[in-house]
Model the fold of this input.
Amino acid sequence: MQEQAKEGKQIGRLLVKEGLIDEAQLEQALKVQEQQQTYKPLGEILRQLGFVSGRKLRDAILKYQKQIPLGELLVKMGVISEFQLTQALFLQKHSTKKLGQILAEKGLVTRSGLAEALCVQLGISGIDKTAVVPDRSLFENVNASFLRRRKVMPLKYDKETRVLTVLVEDPTDKEAIADLEKLFKAEVEPVVLRTGNIEHLLDEILDMWNMSR
Done:
């Protein structure tokens, strides 16, 4: 919890530096975060308070992502060891795969552990498989093959804010998010799956609705 809070403050400082929030807003968000019974990413709190939009938050954090590298975060959270990180980084040099994918394939990190780290690193929310209840009408606007290829699943659309919440495997996939924003003409709010496999979940839902196209 302490490491998560530390990373959250770092993210907050980045947002202040970008001019997206001010010091007073950061302090208010940190106080709200401390009052939470369970850990909630600082970025999520800032969005709920209306201090920053999900898109601006994500863009700012991705811009400075090298300052909060995923591997270092996983070590700080006790998910992997320094030695395991060194091994994975070596393998990444000779691969086109992302670090998280390599760690998962080697069995060094669980899906839930990786999802938790992404939530902290990017200031986004995580959701359990049992809590996934997508709006079927959203699937009428997009081809199933696109969803499978991009590994994304639209969940709900807020007409007032014009924000589309989408379950994504990789929240840093700018192309997938940009495509979704064009398709739905809405701002995309990505969330990650803490438990289960998004591909299997997508297949289950599409098969249940007989939308295999």
Observations:
- The chain has a mean pLDDT of 84.
- The CA atoms of residues 154 and 166 lie 4 Å apart.
- The chain has three domains: 2-66, 69-122, 126-208.
- The radius of gyration is 17 Å.
